[in-house]
Amino acid sequence: MIQIENVSLSYGTRAVLHDISLTLTERRIAIIGANGSGKSSFARLLNGLLLPTSGTVRIDGQTTKDNGKDIRRKVGFVFQNPDNQIVFPVVEEDLAFGMKNLGFSKDTIATKTTDILTRYDMLHLRDHPAHLLSGGQKQLLAISGVLVMEPIYLVLDEPTTLLDLRNKRRISAALNALGQTIILTTHDLDLIAAYDRVIVFDEGRVVIDDTPANAIPAYESLMA
């Protein structure tokens, strides 16, 4: 369970989020809103990349303020641009990085690397230069680099924005197949049509919180 309790966030004198209180329990949750609505800042609060100016974020009872290391193990985060997340020049080296930091054995790292690359039909790219991957392959590598560390929750910030239709569908299928709780910020309304819950942000506040069938049309009306 993720609990957001009276959370506000400011960057200096600029208020970004205003007194947000939510409990997130559903398996698939989408966060939508116009650019500048606060949705990406909200997503970064969920694994402690940002700390609230006031209020509390709790992940399974632990606060992001006091338990940052444990929270980041539980809550994986995938950035919009995979180039901001891929840090090593070769695919398997990039996948191994996080697992080494968690103390996984060499055999475990090798096995998990093989398994995740096989899952996404990328095993032939194991020794490939990461910067020469296609956009879709880079995003799958970024997602894979988080998944091999076995998070309980996966937060993704607009993971399909930079992709063409084929790769959007590939990423969507990959996410739909996961057992983890998914919390996703996006502008792609088709991507979230089958989600359990859609939360709409506007000017740093939650203005709609409902099923996709109700929230998406209400959001479209709001944007009109």
From TrEMBL:
Signal sequence segment: none
Any one Gene Ontology molecular-function term assigned to this protein's record: ATPase-coupled transmembrane transporter activity
Ranges of residues in domain ABC transporter: 2-224
Family named by the database record: Belongs to the ABC transporter superfamily.
Protein name: Biotin transport system ATP-binding protein
Keywords: ATP-binding, Nucleotide-binding, Transport
Superkingdom as given in the UniProt entry: Bacteria
